[in-house]
Amino acid sequence: MSTVDRVRQLVAPLVADQALELYDLELAGGVLRLLVDRDGGVDIDAIAQLSRTVSRTLDEHDPIAGHYTLEVSTPGLERPLRTTDHFSRAIGTAVKVKTRPGTDGDRRLDGTIVGADDRAVTIRLSDGTDRVLAYDDIERARTVFEWGPSNDGKKAKA
């Protein structure tokens, strides 16, 4: 079992106990990053409580060799897309995708996810064409927050 799998086994029940969803877990470059979410959003108190609980549990079980930094946060408005579930849940959402070197076609894509299954995602590009990408061909992907008119009809400012 990989280190990430061991950490996931320890962390997932702690996240669920706080009525949160484990959106993503990543261990890279000495940083363990947990992204959590729930309907209606996650407040700073929930993040702080979860961070303390996860930190104690990881200290007790010591699944990660060496030093690391624990980061607990939400995925934010522009969410990373790394799993098939992430892509499936983002159908209808604007995305930016960068493909791996050697993948046919443009490496950088902007469009809207119009389909996703267990092997590939379909992105509708701005010219109306669809591009099907195997997940293995994707280097990086994220949703894009699109600023629009506020409730009073005025454009939002960045």
Please describe the topology of this protein.
Layout (H helix, E strand, L loop, with lengths): L2 H15 L3 E8 L2 E7 L6 H18 L7 E5 L10 H6 L4 E6 L8 E9 L3 E6 L4 E5 L3 E6 L15
Parallel strand pairs: 2-3
Antiparallel strand pairs: 1-2, 4-5, 4-8, 5-6, 6-7
Helix pairs in contact: 1-2
What does this structure look like?
It is a single chain. This protein has 158 residues and is an alpha+beta fold. The chain folds into two domains: 3-73, 2-Layer Sandwich (GMP Synthetase, Chain A, domain 3), CATH 3.30.300; 84-143, Ribosome maturation factor RimP, C-terminal domain (SH3 type barrels), CATH 2.30.30.180. It contains three helices and eight strands. The strands form two sheets. Strands 7-6-5-4-8 form a five-stranded antiparallel sheet. A three-stranded mixed sheet has the order 1-2-3, covered by helices on one side. α1 (3-17) crosses α2 (44-61). The model is unreliable at 154-158 (pLDDT under 50).
The count of β-strands is: 8
CATH architecture of the largest domain: 2-Layer Sandwich
User: What is the ordering of alpha helices and beta strands?
Assistant: HEEHEHEEEEE
Overall residue-averaged pLDDT value: 92
Coarse shape: globular
CATH domain class name of the largest domain: Alpha Beta
Rg measurement, Å: 18 Å
Outline the biggest β-sheet. Answer: 5 strands, antiparallel
Let me know the CATH homologous superfamily of the largest domain. K homology (KH) domain
Instruction: Give the termini separation.
Output: 44 Å
Strand residues, percent: 25-35%
In helices, the fraction of residues equals: 10-25%
Strand ordering within the main sheet: 7-6-5-4-8
Give the class from helix and strand content and strand pairing. alpha+beta
